[in-house]
Design brief:
The structure is a homodimer of 265-residue chains. Chain A is an alpha/beta fold and 265 residues long. The first copy, chain A, has 2 domains: 150 residues, 3-Layer(aba) Sandwich (Rossmann fold), CATH 3.40.50.620; 94 residues, Pantoate-beta-alanine ligase, C-terminal domain (Pantoate--beta-alanine Ligase, Chain: A,domain 2, 2-Layer Sandwich). In chain A, β8 and β9 form a beta hairpin. Chain A starts with 8 loop residues before the first strand and ends with a strand. At the A-B interface, β4, α5 and α6 of A face β4, α5 and α6 of B.
Chain lengths: 265, 265
Amino acid sequence: MQKKRGKRIGFVPTMGALHEGHLSLIRLAKKHSDFVIVSIFVNPTQFGPKEDFKKYPRNLKKDAALCQTAGADLIFSPSPEEIYPKGFSTYVNVENLTQGLCGASRPGHFRGVATVVSKLFNIVQPDAAIFGQKDAQQLAVIRQMTKDLDQPVKIIGAPIVREGDGLAMSSRNAYLTQEERKQAVALNRTLLKAKQMAKSGQLKADSVKRELIRLLKHDAPLGKIDYVEIVDNATLRPVKVIQKNTLLALGVKFPSARLIDNIVV
Amino acid sequence: MQKKRGKRIGFVPTMGALHEGHLSLIRLAKKHSDFVIVSIFVNPTQFGPKEDFKKYPRNLKKDAALCQTAGADLIFSPSPEEIYPKGFSTYVNVENLTQGLCGASRPGHFRGVATVVSKLFNIVQPDAAIFGQKDAQQLAVIRQMTKDLDQPVKIIGAPIVREGDGLAMSSRNAYLTQEERKQAVALNRTLLKAKQMAKSGQLKADSVKRELIRLLKHDAPLGKIDYVEIVDNATLRPVKVIQKNTLLALGVKFPSARLIDNIVV
């Protein structure tokens, strides 16, 4: 309806449990559009059978209030049955991009993400959609999908929002124990050191990766390294030499939560 | 542009080599819309490596003239590189519906169909799209995909158009030898007999299927039966008892061409 009135629709798809990172997306959407729609949907198809779909935090009332303060005009909060009715059987798959990084330890995750985002784009019909750079692989997958399927939506990446000590904001940070929370700072700190290495001329991906792993093991002993990758930011293919638009990305499994972080050089 | 002017867009996706069947789709689109777009694109991703992608008949000039006589307002005829640029890697998969019937002997075929139709829908932005009932499985797949992905397009099925002797029109009929062409009539004749059987009370799918196979083998000895299936017209799941909306579908491989036909009881 708003679209028919000639307004530009900005769209921020979320799983709720909103934090300052999400709110920054809504504010950015506001700059790129006249009417901002936020979806809140904990999408079952992007969770693995052993992942935290059931315990994922849900608080629609609080989320709705936060959306409003950030300037959202409409919240779309469908039920799982509305999005996946009986007999549902169509999936969107972005091949290649989804094999490595998070995709390796979360098979089917990006199939779920691409499918639900396709659906949401068709329902909401946005002119622009905002995704956080924190899920760098997700952003790359959505960019590729939108381009490949000719979806008429402009994809805008938004910078990572961090806590005071540098930890990337995430709804899953709430799962962390006090000790894990302290060690979790290592993700960002390690990435910053790697960026520093690259800036001071150490451009061999292998060496930087080794150092990243060493630092992570030392500073976050409670965490199990899921991946440390140095890849091209668009294709997500590993690079040998760090250059412009190289993405340093890592995933670490703490006993209470799996965290990810990244930095683009 | 036409859409913005408030016109309803009707869409007929084709692979060209147009015949009277296609023209009937264009005429039907005309009834459901104000502006009819026909796409002509021989879609590489829906052909198997040993199939007839290269030799598939192409005659854009003749097709364009036929489109015009049937009342099309615009022809969209992209190149393979426009539709599948370097790095393309997103595919739409309708699971379940694509395992049986044609899908069994053409793995990947419906993945290619669903992907290109999704793209064309996003490019053309039609209000309604017309597909022939001849490709009954394709029609079911597109209906399911459109519903599952919330694509804002009304899918309209159009009746099969046949030659004087009952052979379903197909661009691939041109491949047939004289002898194969004679025997090809058996597909429709056999389906009509099966429908007659059902009407006269023989509703057991097994018995009807056996009789279909016997008749086909007898009347089309040059053809190798690819499949004979009796299924629900929407879910494509095999039924035991023929009832309303049961689809009788068959595929026969002649040495020069693979033909399909079907009838809904």
